[in-house]
Amino acid sequence: MTKPVILTGVRANNELTLGNYFGAIKPIVEMAKERADEYQVNMFIPDLHSFTTPIDHSVLQQQIVQNARLFVAAGLPLDNDNILLYRQSYVPAHSELTWILDCFTGVGEMGRMIEYKDKSAKIGDDRVSVGLFNYPILMAADILLYDAEYVPVGDDQRQHLEYTRHIAERMNSQFGDIFTAPLPVEKQQEFFGKGQALRIMDLQSPSKKMSKSDDTGKGVVFLTDDPTVAAKKVMSATTDDKASVNYDPAEQPGISNLLQILALLRAEPLDQVELEFKGQSSYGDFKRVIADEVAAFLTEFQANLEAVDDNKLLAVFDRSETIANEQANATLLRVQQAVGLRPKAD
Ligand code: TYM
C-alpha cells in the first residue's frame, strides 16, 4: 500500500438505510470521488459479518450484489484503479488474521462491547453465536490487513474502532511494528468532517438508532423504500409536545433527528438548518419539508440504482479482489512471521 488507505464496509444482511448512507457510505464515496489520487479507497462488503445474527441464507448472494449496487448508486466510481470494491470472503486472509487476533484478545474485552450487549440482550442467550461475540475482531482484521488509517463509520462502531487501535498497539509492542493503527476517532472526525461518528435515530423511537435489522421498519427509511412510503414514515415520525422546533437531542430527540437528516440531505451545517426552522410551532409543516426532501433524494438515488451495470460491477470485484488478496496476504505474512508461524525473512 503506497498511498494512505481509506476503508469502510457495510454488512450485507438487509436493505440499507439512511443511517448507513450518511454514517458510512456517503463519507467514503465523497473521498473516492474527490481524493482517489492521493488515497487508496477500499469499499468492501463484509459478507462474513452477515450472519453474526440469523439471516435467510437463500438471499445472501443477492444481498451482496445489491450492497455493491447501492455503493455505486451513491456515486462510487468504478473506473479508478485506486478504488477497490471487494467481497470480504473472497480474501481469505481476513479469516486467518482474525484467528490470530482472537488469541491476543481477552474474553472480557469483547464482552464489554456495547453492540454485543445490545444485540445479545435482544436475541436471547441461547441464540447468541460466538460470531456475534467476536465480530469486532474480524472487523479489526478487515482494517489492519490494509494498513487503513481512515475508517468512516457511524457512532455505533466507535468502540470497535478503538478496539482495533488497542489490538494493533498490543501486537506492535509485543512483536515490533507489524500493524498501522487507524487514527483515533476524533482525528477521523476532523478528516471526514461532521458526518463521522453520526447516529441517525429511528423515526418512531428516536432514542434508538435507525437500524436495518429493525423488525417493523416503520421508523426506518430504507434506500430502496418507495419515496411516497418514506415520506409517510417521516410524516408519522414521533415528535414531542413542545410545539417549537429546536436542536436539543436530550429534550427533543425526534425533532433533533429530523433536523439532522435535513442538514445531511442538503449538505448544510446543522446550525444553519436549525436557524431556518427555530421556534416553528407547526410540526406538520416542518415534517412536510423533510418528507419532500427525503422523497426527492430517494427518487434520484433509485434512478441511479436502476442504471447500475451488473457486468461492470462483477468485473470490478474481480480486479479488486486480486489486488486485495495481494495486499492482505503481504500483511498476513508479516504477522505470521512475527508470531512464529512462518520463518522470518533474512
Ligand atoms: P453495519 O453494516 O451495521 O453498518 C454499516 C455502517 O453504517 C453505520 N450506521 C449508522 N450511521 C449513522 N446512523 C445510523 N443509524 C447508522 N446505522 C448504521 C455503521 O456505523 C457502519 O459504519 N461492523 C460493521 C461493518 C464492518 C466494517 C468493517 C466497517 C465490518 N468490517 C471494517 C468499517 C471497517 C457493521 O456492522 O456495520
Outline of the structure:
The chain has 346 residues and is mainly alpha-helical. The protein has helices spanning 18-35, 60-73, 93-102, 107-111, 114-123, 130-144, 158-175, 185-192, 227-235, 253-266, 270-277, 283-306, 310-339; strands at 5-9, 40-45, 83-87, 148-150. Helix 3 (93-102) packs across helix 6.
Alpha-carbon Rg, integer:
21 Å
Shape: globular
Beta-strand residue percentage: 5-15%
Question: How confident is the prediction overall: mean pLDDT?
Answer: 93
Bound small molecules, which ones? tryptophanyl-5'AMP
Largest sheet: 4 strands, parallel
Query: Termini distance?
Result: 22 Å
**Uncertain residue ranges:** none
Order of helices and strands: EHEHEHHHHEHHHHHHH
Assembly state here?
A: single chain
Could you give the order of strands across the largest sheet? 3-2-1-4
Class based on secondary structure composition and strand pairing: mainly alpha
Provide a descriptive summary of the structure in words.
It is a single chain. With 346 residues, the protein is mainly alpha-helical. It is built from 13 helices and 4 strands. It has helices spanning 18-35, 60-73, 93-102, 107-111, 114-123, 130-144, 158-175, 185-192, 227-235, 253-266, 270-277, 283-306, 310-339; strands at 5-9, 40-45, 83-87, 148-150. A 4-stranded parallel beta sheet has the order 3-2-1-4. Strand 1, helix 1 and strand 2 (40-45) form a beta-alpha-beta unit. The longest helix has 30 residues, at 310-339. The chain is globular. The relative contact order is 0.14. The chain binds tryptophanyl-5'AMP (TYM). Residues 7-11, 19-20, 22-24, 46, 49, 139, 142-143, 151, 153-154, 156-157, 198-200, 209-211 line the site of tryptophanyl-5'AMP.
